[in-house]
Design brief:
This protein has about 325 residues and is α/β, with parallel strands linked by helices. It is about 45% helix and about 15% strand. The protein has two domains: about 5-110, Ribosomal Protein S8, Chain: A, domain 1 (2-Layer Sandwich), CATH 3.30.1370.10; about 120-335, P-loop containing nucleotide triphosphate hydrolases (Rossmann fold, 3-Layer(aba) Sandwich). About 35% of the residues are buried.
């Protein structure tokens, strides 16, 4: 028995209420979250009120917002019915995507279809949470060269590494190679102590963090020991042919034009390559052109190359990050 949208008795405040009934009270508890925190998150973002009465939820507020809340609640409940859990980020993504589909029941359920856009790793499933992320993931599986361009926190690198792990575990590729330019973000750190690995590891840490999210520590260590997963600065790519590999270049806005050309021409048989970057965070010396911007211009019409763009609406970190990005974008527009 599915969710029921009830028609309450006629009364004066009928115009500001919608009712949803849920057949499984155990799932309803998970839907509401501890101390109803999931409901509070929806209330806060949509500016509505949700009241729990037994096995039903009463939604109070403006009709368009009530309909949007109903779409999100139905989708979240369908997710729980499929055996998957709910975290704050899932609700954030559902709210972001629901604005375009709340009037379409088929679309609202499609948003939450189990496994439709799911990436399976050894530690947890990963799902794109916005339309741009869905298109990006589809292109990561379908194209040999993919660019992901947009601000921090939009999942460009995280999703690319997740797809790379999925393809490695499935046997679609033999290795993962992750690279970044070793460029300091506006600071001079001086000479770092230790051997070469110890010197470059601080620059590579975001890539290690992503891998640790997807693979158990012992398995990750073994794959790195066997050179099936490599993490190296961009400068180490010169002269190599990267065959049967899933290759990611992160922070590509800090690659020079020559470095970008060098890296792109490493692509070998059976490989896929992903280039991620943020044009607003270029740390190259003044007067040095960004290889990412040049690649956009030069490769925009090349068959087999996919460009994917993200904005503040695709940020999946803390909601405040999206507002910070929008504020800086607005300030840059004013300054220009």
């Amino acid at each position: 028995m599915g969710i029921s949208a009830l028609t309450p008795p006629k009364r004066a405040d009928e115009a500001i209420e919608s009712h949803l009934e849920f057949p499984d009270n155990r799932l309803l508890i998970d839907l509401c979250g501890e101390y109803d925190r999931n409901l509070a998150q929806i209330e806060h973002q949509l500016g509505i009120q949700i009241v729990r009465r037994g096995n039903r939820l009463v939604i109070l507020g403006e009709k368009t917002l009530r309909d949007q809340a109903m779409a999100v609640l139905k989708g979240m409940y369908a997710r729980l019915e499929s055996g998957r859990g709910l975290v704050s980020g899932d609700i954030e993504g559902a709210l972001r995507m629901s604005g375009n589909v709340f009037g379409d029941t088929a679309l609202q359920m499609e948003m939450f279809q189990p496994g439709q856009h799911e990436i399976r790793t050894r530690k947890k499933p990963v799902e794109p949470r916005t339309d741009a992320q869905k298109a990006y993931v589809a292109n990561l599986f379908d194209n040999e060269l993919v660019f992901g361009i947009g601000p921090a926190g939009t999942g460009k690198t995280y999703l690319a590494v997740a797809v790379g792990v999925t393809m490695l575990l499935s046997g679609a590729v033999e290795k993962i190679i992750l690279s970044r330019p070793a460029v300091e973000a506006g600071e001079r750190l001086g000479f770092l102590p230790g051997d070469m690995k110890e010197k470059v590891d601080p620059y590579m840490q975001p890539l290690y963090d992503a891998l640790n999210d997807f693979l158990p520590q012992k398995q990750l260590a073994k794959l790195m020991e066997d050179k099936r997963i490599e993490i190296a600065p961009l400068a180490f790519m010169r002269g190599r042919t990267l065959a049967n590999a899933f290759v990611v270049l992160d922070e590509a806005q800090n690659a020079t034009t020559m470095q970008m050309k060098m890296f792109l021409t490493r692509l070998g048989e059976g490989s896929r390559m992903v280039i991620t970057g943020d044009r607003t965070q270029i740390d190259l010396p003044r007067g040095t052109a960004s290889g990412l911007q040049d690649a956009e211009r030069i490769l925009k019409d090349v068959r087999g190359v996919s460009f994917n763009y993200f904005n503040s609406k695709d940020v999946v970190r803390h909601p405040l990050v999206a507002r910070i990005i929008e504020a800086y974008d607005a300030a840059d527009g004013t300054a220009g």
